[in-house]
Amino acid sequence: MPNHTYTIAEIAEILHYNFKLIDNQVIIEYLVIDSRSVLVPENSLFFALSSHRDGHEFIKDAYGKDIRNFVITEERYVAEYPDCNFIIVTDALIALQTLALHHRNQFNLKTIGITGSNGKTIVKEWLYQLLASDFNIVRSPKSYNSQIGVPLSVWQIDAENTLGIFEAGISAVNEMESLEKIIQPEIGILTNIGEAHAEGFQSKKEKLKEKLKLFENSELLIYSPEYITEISLKELPGKKHFSWSSKQGADLRIIAVEPIDGNCYLRAIYQDREIECMLPFKDKASIENGMICWATLLALGYTPEQADLRLEKLSHVSMRLELKNGINQCSVIDDSYSADISSLAIALDFLNQQNQHPKKTVILSELFETGRADEDLYGEIADLLKQKKVSRLIGIGSHITKFAKLFKFETQFFEDTSAFVDAFPGLQFSHETILVKGARRFEFARISKLLTQKIHDTVLEIDLNAMVGNLQFYRSKIKPGVKIMAMVKAFSYGSGSFEIANLLQFHKVDYLAVAYADEGIALRKAGITLPIMVMSPEESAFEAIIKHNLEPEIYSLEILNSFLNALSDYDFNYPIHIKIDSGMHRLGFDQAEMDNLSELLNANDKVKVQSIFSHLVASGEAEHDDFSARQIDKFNSIAKQLIEVLGYKPLLHIANTSGITRWPDAQMDMVRLGIGLYGFDSALLNNRGLKTTMVLKTTVTQVKILDAGETVGYSRKGVMPMGGKIATVKIGYADGYNRAFGNGVGKMLINGQLVPTIGSICMDMTMLDVSAIDLKPGDEAIVFNQEHSIMQLAKEINTIPYEILTNISQRVKRVYFYE
Ligand SMILES: *Cc1c(COP(=O)(O)O)cnc(C)c1O
C-alpha cells in the first residue's frame, strides 16, 4: 500500500475535469484498469480505458466487485450508478497519465529509465538485484512498460524510495514523449535495439530515434555504439555518455568472453586497466544483458571489484508463470520469481481462471513489502485469497505463521522450505490446482519439483499472453456485436485442452467448437461452462452429448432424425446448429434438401436452431474470391428460406480466420476463429499483427565425431563423405516430427545456429549435422519458435501450419506461460 495517498476530491482537482462525487473523502490507493483484477475495491479508482474493448463495458463488472470510484468519458453512467464517485474526462488514458505525472512530481528520487527492443525487463530486474543493498528501490512490476504500464509503475513511488527503475516500451512514433515526462530518468540505459523492422515504424532508424527520446533530459546515458549505428553520436541525447563495446574507444571495452561451465568470464579495458567479472550465465542474451549491467555499475561509480562481486551473484529471472501437469492429476502453477502483493494478485487471477479442479491450494512464502506492518500486509493477503476462492493455504516462513489466525480456511504452516520438504510424503495433494509462489530466497523450485511430473525433454511451450493478444487482434477486426466462436478442435490445434478453453472463457469468447463429443466432454469435466458446438457428433455419443449439454452440428436429415430420437425422453428446445453446404462439399445440407429439413424442423419443438452456418473453402485466397462471394450469396439465400420457415432468427456464421479480415461483410452474427488464435492467418502477409504462440524444443542427448565416409541412421541414408560431427536429439516421428524432415530437409536451432537433419528421422530421435557449431549434450534444440517459424517448417515439407501443429503428439509435454 503506498503511503502517499490522495482523496478522490484531490484527484478530481488534479485532473481538472467535471466530476460528481458522492463521498469526496474516499482515499484512493489503487488504480484499476481491469475489472477482473481488483485488490481493495474501497480504495480503488477504475479507469474506463478503451482499447480493443470499450472500458465502459466493464463498469458493471467493477461495480459488482464493489468499486465505487470511476474515471469515465461517457457521462450517462453517472445517472446509472447514483451511489458512485465519477470523474468525467475527455480521454481516460490521458487522465491516467496526468495523475501519474502529478504523483511523480511529488518526489525527487534518482531514476533509471530503460528502453530498447529486447532485454528491458531482465536488465531492470538485474539492476534491482545489484542495487537493492544500497537503495530502497521502486520498479516497474513485471514488464509494465506501455502507455498504461508506465503510469501504473510510477504510481507506486512513495516517500521511502531512493531509487526508481522503470522500463519504457513503445510501438509507434510519438509515444515516448509522454513516457519520458512521467519517468523523468536521470540515468538512461539503452538495451538491444533488435534488427527487426518493427511494425509502427518506417525504419530501424526511426524506431531508434523514437526510443532515444526517453533520454532527452537525462544526465547520463549508458549505451553500446553497436546499437546506434543508424545515427551519429551528435544525435545521441543525454548530457554525459558511458559506452560499452568490443570496439576501440568504448569506456568499457570488452576484450574477452569465455564460457566456463555454466558461467561466462568477461574481461575488459576500463580506465586504462584490465578488469574482469564473472556472470553466472552462458547464453548470448544473458551475456549481453550482463554487459549492460556491468557498464551501469561502473558508470554509477562502483569499483570494478565491487561490480564483479555483485554480478557473480545475479540470479535467473523468469517473468512468467508456468502451468504444468502435476502429481496425482494436479495442475501446478509455478511462480517462484517474486513475491510481492501485485505479482501475487496476478498469479491469483490466473489460479482463479482455472476451472479444472474445484480445489485450489496456494503454497506461499512470507512476503516483504517495505514500510508495511505485517498484520496489515497479511490481513490484505488473507482477503485476497478469500476473494479468489482459494480453498487451502500452505504458508512457509515464521512471519506468515505468526498471522495464521487471519486465514479463515484450511491452512498449514511450516517454518521453512526444508520443513515442508521433510513433511511432503505425508501431505495430501490430489485433483487440485496448486499455486507455488515464493520469494526467491525460499527456493520454492524445490517444491515445484516435488509437485510436478518430470518433464520429458521435449516440450511444447504455449504463450497464453500471445494467444490473448491474437484474440484481441481479431476483436479489433470484428464489428460491434459480432460474436466469436473459438475453434478448439484437435486439442486446440495441438496446443492443449482445458488450459486454452479456460483462457478463452476468462476472456469471454461466446462459443467454443470441438470436432468430437469426447473433446467437449473433457472440457465440461474441466469446468468449462461456455456453450460448445460439436462438429462431428457420432450417434453413439448422443446420450453423452445431451448429458453434458453439448450442441451438435446437424448436417443431414439422417443425423437430425437420430438426434430427435435420442431426445424422445426429453421435452426441451435442445440447441442444435444447422450446417449448410455452400461449396465445400464436405458436410451439410444442399438446397435440394431444404424442404425436407424445414418440414422436419417445423413439425418438432424438441430442438431449437441456435445457429445456421457454412464454411468458406478459400477465404484467404484472392484467386478464389469469386467463388467465396458465390458461397456467401448461396448461404445467405438458403439461410433466409430457413429463417422464414422457423419463424425466429438463429445466429448466422460463415467466416473462419481469414474470412474475418478479408470478408468483413460476411462476419454476420458470429465468426469462427481458428488458426488465427494460434498465430497464423493466410490473409495477413507474414502473419503481421499476430504473435507466435508456440515453441517446440528438445534436447541434445549425445554428440559424436564421425570419420570420413561413415553413415548415419537407418539404411545408411545419412552420408558424411568428409566426416564431421553429429548430435542426437530426443524427438522423432512419434512425437510428430515428420519423416519428411529427414536428410537435411528439416533444420533445428542450437545455440542460435540452424543445423540440418542428417539421415532418416527415427521414431523417437533425430540426428543433426552439427559439424559447424559448438555444442554439448544437454543443450537445447529448438524445432520451431518465432525465428525458425512453423511457416518455414510447413514450407520445407510442403504442408500447412495446421498439420505441423496438430501432429505434435500428446506425449510431448505442454507447458503454459502466463505473464
Ligand atoms: C476448423 C474450422 C474453422 C476454423 O478455421 P481456421 O482457418 O482455422 O480459422 C472454422 N469453421 C469450421 C467448420 C472448421 O472446421
Automatic annotation (TrEMBL):
Enzyme Commission no: 5.1.1.1
Catalytic activity: L-alanine = D-alanine
Required cofactor(s): pyridoxal 5'-phosphate
Keyword Isomerase: yes
Domain Alanine racemase C-terminal: 693-817
UniProt key word Cytoplasm: no
Residues holding substrate: R586, M763
Top-level division of the source organism's lineage: Bacteria
GO molecular function: ligase activity
SMART domains: Ala_racemase_C
Task of the protein: Catalyzes the interconversion of L-alanine and D-alanine. May also act on other amino acids.
NCBIfam families named in the record: alr, PRK11930.1
Family in the record: Belongs to the alanine racemase family.
Name of the protein in question: Alanine racemase
UniProt organism field: Pedobacter fastidiosus
